[in-house]
Amino acid sequence: MSDSAQNLPTLRVEWDFGAEAPASIGRLIALLAAIDSSGSIAGAARETGLSYRNAWGLINAWQAWFGQPLIVTARAHGSSLEPFARQLLEIDRGARRSLSRALEHASEPMRVLSLKPAEHDSAALRFAASHEPLLNELIRQLRSARADGAAVTLSTHGSLESLLALAARRCDIAGFHCPVGDLGRDIWSLYRAQPGLPKLRLIGFARRTQGLILARGNPKKVSGLADLTRKDLRFVHRQPGAGTRLAFDLLARRAGLDTRALNDGDEEHTHAAVAALIASDEADAGLGLEAFARRLDLDFIPLFEEMYFLALRDSAAGRDTAHALSALLRDPHWRARGRELSGYALDEAGEEYDMTGAETLLFGPPSARIPAR
């Protein structure tokens, strides 16, 4: 763990309004403070790490709880706080000022402990992976199959961040995806260029179709990427560093689109969230997996095919884990799941590749696969 001050543990306080109160009073107070300083709910949502939809959901839930309005909105004049919300902020700030010295003193023993060398259960299997619904099923199977009771954990990140977590030994397996064909070459080169990336062994997990997810019936008559810069379209982005965001930015550049001209909408961290935002009429379009568009009966324009891989260090322990995962994923019952999901194929599930073999799979003739042992 870093010993820089910003990464050291700090004891904090949180208001408790009881079990029946809405969640996240701390996020509400942070959101109100950001609205007060910026005059914009959209800007405050970005500043506090919320989507616009979630910010409004938080505000509405607490307005109902308090029985008091919190926000004043006026067209062309932004947003400001009602007097009751300003009182909330004043009370919170006063309480934190009065407790700050005691909390700082109480934090010190935990800071000392946190500087000891990090330890983790060597038997645990840690996944860091880009959002993939079938991966949750794999994790459940692995947990039930591990007779020794060792933990299997999953943390969701963008593809790039997941590979960096593997390089930093913060995980044992990284899940990432890359477009098939010419679109994927630059993205693959970006992955390979990351500092500290070890020699990898890759396992094919799923072949997926991505494209534009659109509102049911496509009421805005979107026909392709060129329509996304229209002023009447609300586009929802994935977060920077996500494999889907990397692909979108590359597609937009190749189409000659100025992504800065896109409506400044939400950023979501999963395909499910993108589809849900469009289904709830909070956005008109977003790039995501076909499976989620079909699940919510939304329109879909396919744009590219991609491979999702599981990456492990090419070490003795990594190879043993890879062989065990490969056996599970090559099972006919597992591969049959691909026929149940729109835009999925699991023909390569469980196949093992070195980096050269994976490149051939993505960009060239059929790859010579590494025989499973």
SSE diagram, text form:
Layout: H1 25-38, H2 41-47, H3 52-66, E1 71-74, E2 78-81, H4 83-114, E3 125-129, H5 133-145, E4 152-156, H6 159-167, E5 173-179, H7 183-192, E6 200-214, E7 235-238, H8 243-254, E8 267-268, H9 271-279, E9 285-289, H10 290-295, E10 299-313, H11 316-329, H12 332-335, E11 344-345, E12 352-353, H13 355-363
Parallel strand pairs: 3-4, 3-5, 7-8, 7-9
Antiparallel strand pairs: 1-2, 5-10, 6-9, 6-10, 6-11, 6-12
Helix pairs in contact: 1-2, 1-3, 2-3, 7-8
Describe, in short, the structure shown.
By secondary structure, this protein is an alpha/beta fold.
Explain how this protein is built.
With 373 residues, this protein is an alpha/beta fold. The chain has two domains: 110 residues, Arc Repressor Mutant, subunit A, CATH 1.10.10; 253 residues, D-Maltodextrin-Binding Protein, domain 2 (3-Layer(aba) Sandwich). 41% of the residues lie in helices and 19% in strands. The protein is built from 13 helices and twelve strands. Strands 3, 4, 5, 6, 7, 8, 9, 10, 11 and 12 form a ten-stranded mixed beta sheet that branches. A two-stranded antiparallel sheet has the order 1-2. Strand 1 and strand 2 form a beta hairpin. Helix 1 packs across helix 2, helix 1 packs across helix 3 and helix 2 packs across helix 3. The protein is globular, with a radius of gyration of 24 Å. It starts with 24 loop residues before the first helix and ends in a 10-residue tail after the last helix. The N terminus is likely disordered. This is Molybdenum-binding protein. InterPro entries: PBP_domain, WH-like_DNA-bd_sf, WH_DNA-bd_sf.
